[in-house]
Amino acid sequence: MSHPYAARIDLTFPDNELAEKAIQVLQVDKEPGDRVVKAFSIVQEESVAVLRVELKATEAKMLRVAVSSFYDFVQVVLKTMQEFDPAS
Amino acid sequence: MTSRATDGPCSAKPLVDNLPLPESTINSKETTVVLGIEGSANKVGVGVLRYQKNNHTYEILSNPRKTFIAPTGQGFLPRETAWHHQAHVVALVRTALQEAFPNDKQPEAHVDAICFTKGPGMGGPLQSCAVCARTLSLLWKVPLVAVNHCVGHIEMGRLATGASNPVVLYVSGGNTQVIAYQDQRYRIFGETIDIAIGNCLDRFARVIGLSNDPSPGYNIEQEAKKEGAQYVELPYVVKGMDVSFSGILTHVETLAKTRLVQEEDSKNGEKDNSNKITKADLCYSLQETLFAMLVEITERAMAHCGQNQVLIVGGVGCNKRLQDMMSIMVSERGGTLCAMDHRYCIDNGAMIAQAGVFAFQFGELTKMEDTWVTQRYRTDQSKIVWRRSAQWKHT
Question: Which residues are involved in binding a divalent metal cation (chain B) (predicted)?
């Protein structure tokens, strides 16, 4: 099965630890079926950590939904971190 | 005789069925506090629960909740419901902590574990809450406990009413089951073979244009109480230990579309045409029919299990007419009905904390990779490690 539709999202985190925690949280939920594939990684850039998500899908519509959902759930992670991170 | 849930700390002593807490680091502490996050349907709630060792009590310290109410004539859909929960869950956690530990600069320091609903329910809403729970777990470095939503209702009911081993009628928008405990599982004795009773009521409310605020079921209950409401015969569908609602829904929807008279018409005397029925007639008749079906299958389970106590849990359990009808049957059998009010019948965070704290006290933690949520999670799939494992006895 080929996944011709792809998107890459880079989110800048203040540090590596928070970016890693975000990945741990978000990678638990698998996309249903294999029509959408998600891959997480951290790209180190000077003093910040960039959480990278690469999404690939078999159809444009599925990619749009996956990207939209990703933003929805990552916002919950970010809001939780902003409110409750003991370091801040 | 009906026993109602009490406020304040609930002693676990009436729960003779529960095993004594095992010796462990967790259980050697004087106080255990857990957070519970619930969001499987249109309600999102966060509860803080505290266990005190010295008097063996569980107390709800806070239990704030927000409900997503769809516009009149519509139901709540997964996407909008998920957005609602995503918008409110973090603030609810903050509110719950503040109410539980007022004037405390670091209330989260008290929390020993985070309990959340694994399922069953709607995927997006469940996931929205689970994501928050997981993040908190990593930030505060406390374990996670995944909870079955139905078991949450049951354990909340047991603690709040002191009923150790009742036959449970679990009735909500998403579930309709008659449950009895046996050998570390909540066994399903009877259930709906199609839609849940709450779903039937909610969809009917849409057809007759009742508001969803505060809930369609509540508005049906009020409409049914109106003076002059007449009984209209509806199909009655009990199949052995099970019930079926979708045929009754179709029937009552058809009646509403073809024979409903508006209040204005009836005031003008058009109700003389005996073919016409009012909203109140339909609401009253639907409740009488559906609730009688539930009473029948509950009684059947009581007879089978030799049980005298019934506990009603789930949002539809708030309905006073259902409680009254069940109470009549239970009294005739010389038993007790245990019921609660809307704070605990309707989905809430504290019930997840209640089932979760039991699991936590028995060492049942959930690893991060196992914290995925699921729309389907049968009540009997959850191992009830905190209750006695007893063999069935025939009398």
Answer: 149, 153, 170, 347
Residue B170 counted as an annotated binding residue: yes
Judge whether B87 is closer than 8 Å to chain A, CB to CB.
no
Q: Which of B83, B139, B368 sits opposite A84 (nearest CB)?
A: B139
Per DSSP, chain A holds a count of helices (H) and strands (E) of: 2, 3
Alpha-carbon distance of B215 to B213, in angstroms, equals: 5
> pLDDT tens digits for B165-223?
999 999 999 999 999 999 999 999 999 999 999 999 999 999 999 999 999 999 999 99
Q: Between B154 and B264, whose confidence is greater?
A: B154
Chain-chain contact of A84 with B86 (C-beta, under 8 angstroms): no
In a domain, residue A66? The reply is yes
**Is there a contact between B257 and B212 (Cβ–Cβ < 8 Å)?**
no
In angstroms, the separation between the Cα of residue B274 and the nearest Cα of chain A is 52
Asked if B197 and B203 touch (Cβ cutoff 8 Å), the reply is: no
Neighboring chain A residues of B371 at a CB cutoff of 8 Å: 28
Instruction: Output the pLDDT for position A32.
Output: 82
Distance, in Å, from the CA atom of B212 to the CA atom of B221, rounded to the nearest integer, reads 12
Q: How far apart are CA B211 and CA B383, in angstroms?
A: 39
- Give the pairing type, strands B43-52 and B113-119: unpaired
Please report residues of A whose CB lies closer than 8 A to that of B130. Answer: 28-29
The number of distinct structural domains making up chain A is 1
pTM of the model: 0.95
Place of tokens 């936590």: B360
Residue A88 lies in a domain: no
CATH number for the domain spanning A17: value is 3.30.310.50
Is the ipTM beyond the 0.95 threshold? Answer: yes
Q: What is the pLDDT of residues B68-82, one digit of tens each?
A: 999 999 999 999 999
Range of the domain at A19: 5-83
The per-residue pLDDT for range B246-258, each reduced to its tens digit, is 999 999 999 999 9
| Angstrom distances, CA of residue B176 to CA of A1, B124, B195, B302 | 41, 22, 8, 16
Q: Express each pLDDT in A14-64 by its tens digit.
A: 889 999 999 999 999 998 888 999 999 999 888 889 999 999 999 999 999
Sort out which chain A residues have CB atoms less than 8 A from B39's CB and list them. Answer: none
| Total length of chain B | 395
The type of residue at B176 is: T
